[in-house]
Amino acid sequence: MSLRDAFGLALRNLRQSKLRTTLTVLGVAIGIASLAGMVSLGVGLQDQFVGRFMQSGMFDSINVMSGSVQLNGPFGGGRGRGGRGGRGARPADDTPVKPLDDAALAELAALPNVREVYPMVRVPVEIKFGETTVYTTAAGIPMSAKGVGPFQTITHGEFFPGDTEAVAMLSLPMANRLVESNPEQLIGKEVTLGYARGSGGPSAPGFPGVPPVMQVQRVEGRYRVVGIVERETGPMAMGGSMVSGLMLPLTKAREINTQVIAAQQSFMRGRAAVDGVFQTLTVKVSAPQHTQDVQEQIKKLGYSAFSLNDALQGAKRAFLILDIILGLIGSIALAVASLGIMNTMVMSILERTREIGIMKAIGGSDSDVRRIFLIEASAIGVLGGIAGLFLGWLVGRIINFGANQYIVSQGGAAGNLFSLPVWLIAAALGFAIVVSLAAGAFPARRAARLDPIQALRHD
After folding, report:
1. Are residues 22 and 89 in the same domain?
2. Hey, which of 38, 74, 349, 365 has its CA 20 to 30 A from 176?
C-alpha cells in the first residue's frame, strides 16, 4: 500500500466519524491552547521585564573604577585605594593604581566590542530661576543617551541639540520646584547656574588675606532649558544615564567639574587640580551579550569593573524556570487530550475490526494497518494544534486587553503580556503531533496485530 493510499484511507475514516473526530480535535486544541497560553505568558513577562531593562541601557554598561576617589562632591569623595586623586591608604601590596584619565578612556575604547567610553560626571551646583534658588547635583549626559532609557520620551521639549551648547534639561520634580505651576513654561527660558572655581594663580582676583593658591571664586553661567523628563532615579543608577534634577551635555559638565575640583582641592588641600582624572568611567558595549567578556578584559587591564550582567543572567534563569513550570501546568490538559485520542483510536479499531481483517486478507501488511492509524492520530494532532494555537492567541489577546485597561487606569504603562514567537508556535505544533502519535501508537500496534481470521469472524 502506497503512502498516498494510506493517507486517503485515514482521512476517509476521520470524515466518517465527524462528531467523535471533532470532539477529539477540540480536546487537543484546548490542551495546546493551555500549553501555548501558559508559556506565552512567561515569554511575554520576560520580554517586558528584561526588554525594558535592556532599553534602559543598564545591561550593556560597565562601570569602571581605578580604586582611587577623586573629590567631586561638596565634602570630598571618601575613601579609596590611594593613588592620584584619592586620600585613602595604599593597598598592602603597594600595587600602583591606574588613574582614570584621558589615556584610560582611549585604552578602554580600543577594546573589542566596546561602542563608547565616557566619564560619569556629577557636579554640585546652584540653580536659580527668578526668586527661586535650589542646590542640586548636575549630571553630565552624553549625546548617545538620546532615545535610550529615561530619555526615550521627553515630557516637554527635546533632547540636547548639541554637546557644546549652554543648554540644560530638568527633571519634572525639579521643574516643579522652580515653577510651582505649569513647569512647561520653563522650556526656552534661561536658568542661572552657580558653582565654585579655583582662582588658578596669584594674579586672579580672590578673597583678601587668603593665599592666592587657596583662593576660590564663584562663577555663574546662564543655560537655556530645552527639555523636561518625567522623573529622576536614585543615585545608584547604572550606565551613566541617570536622570538627575539637572542635566547638562557631558562636555559642558566636564568643564564645570574641572573648575569645581580645582576649587575644592585649592581650598581644602592647597594644591592644583589634576585635570582629566575621573572617579568612574562608563563603558558601553555593542550588545549586552558582550558585557561579561568586556568586563573581564577591563579587569585584566588593572581596573575595577562591575555591571548588572550577573543580575540579568539570574533573571533569565528565573524566567526559564517559570516557563518550565507554566509549560508543565499547561501540559496537564494536553495529557488529558491524549487519553481522548487513545480512546478514539481504540473505538475505531472495534468498529473497523472486520474492515481490518479484509484488508489483511487481501494482502495488507501489519505496517500498512499501523501506518493508517498513525496517520489518523497525527492528523488529529495537526488539526488540534492549529486550532489550539489560534484559541490560545485569541484568549491571550482578550486577557491582555483587559489587563492593560486596568494597568492604564492605575497609572501604569500598557504592555504585551502574552508573546507568541515563531519558535513557540513551531514547538507547540510539534508537541501536539508527538503527543498524538504517542497516544495512537498503542491502538495502531493493537490493530496491526489483529488475526485476520478472527477479524473476519467479528460481527
Report:
1. no
2. 74
